[in-house]
C-alpha cells in the first residue's frame, strides 16, 4: 500500500477481512471452469460504470497478487503499478483530455473526447510502468544481453497487463486497455509525483459492465497456428 499512500490514496479498510479471494454466493458452476474458460472472460469493454461492489482494498490486493504472479526476465520484477480511484481517476483523464486537445486537430478531437469520456465514467484506472533503473542495472550486469532487456521489459509489462485484466474479468468487472503515453507522461508524472525512472507503458480503466459485449470474431486458425511433429 506504500504506493497508494504516496499518491494520496490512503486506504483504511481491513484487508484481512475483505480479501482471501472469497466471493459470496459464487455459483458452483464456476468451480468447474478451466483456466482457458477464465481467460475467455477477458474482453475489451468500453461501456464502463461505477457500480462496483468490491472495496478499494480488495481490488488493490487482487491487482497486486496478479502482478506478483507474473514472470519477468531474470526475475527483474520491473513492473510498477499506480492505481487511481475517485478524484485521482477523474483528474488523470482530465489531464489526458488537456494533452489531447493540444496535439489533436479540432475536427478529430470531438471523437477522441467521446472515447475519453467513456474512460472517465469507469470506476478506476491502473497505470502500468516499467522501472528503467532495474533494466539499466541488468544491462550493466549482463552486457551481452543489454540490447534485449528493453524488449524483455515490454514483454514483462504485457504479461502484467494481461494478468490484471484477466483477474478483473474473473471478478465480474470490465476493462479496456489504453495507450495515451508518451504524450501524457510528463504531466502525469508531475501531478502524481511519479519517479523519473518509471516509464508509462499502458493504462487500464475498469468498472462495472454497462453494456453486453458482442461475440469476438476469430481469424482462421490455419493463418495463426502451425504444428510440427
Care to describe what's here?
This protein is α+β, with helices and mostly antiparallel strands. It has a domain at 56-211: NADH Oxidase (3-Layer(aba) Sandwich). 44% of the residues lie in helices and 15% in strands. The chain has nine helices and five strands. Strands 1, 2, 3, 4 and 5 form a five-stranded antiparallel β-sheet that branches. The model is unreliable at 3-27 (pLDDT under 50).
Layout of strands and helices, then pairs:
Elements: H1 2-6, H2 15-18, H3 35-40, E1 48-49, H4 56-68, E2 79-85, H5 86-103, H6 106-120, E3 124-131, H7 132-141, H8 149-170, E4 174-178, H9 185-192, E5 198-209
Antiparallel strand pairs: 1-5, 2-3, 3-5, 4-5
Helix pairs in contact: 4-8, 5-6
Element pattern in H and E = HHHEHEHHEHHEHE
CATH superfamily of the domain at 56-211: NADH Oxidase
Which secondary-structure class do the elements indicate?
alpha+beta
The shape, in one word, is: globular
Distance N terminus to C terminus?
Answer: 49 Å
On the 0 to 100 scale, the average pLDDT is 89
Question: How much is the radius of gyration in Å?
Answer: 19 Å
Q: The CATH topology of the domain at 56-211 is what?
A: NADH Oxidase
Low-confidence region ranges: 3-27
CATH class call of the domain at 56-211: Alpha Beta
Number of separate helices: 9
Helical content band: 40-55%
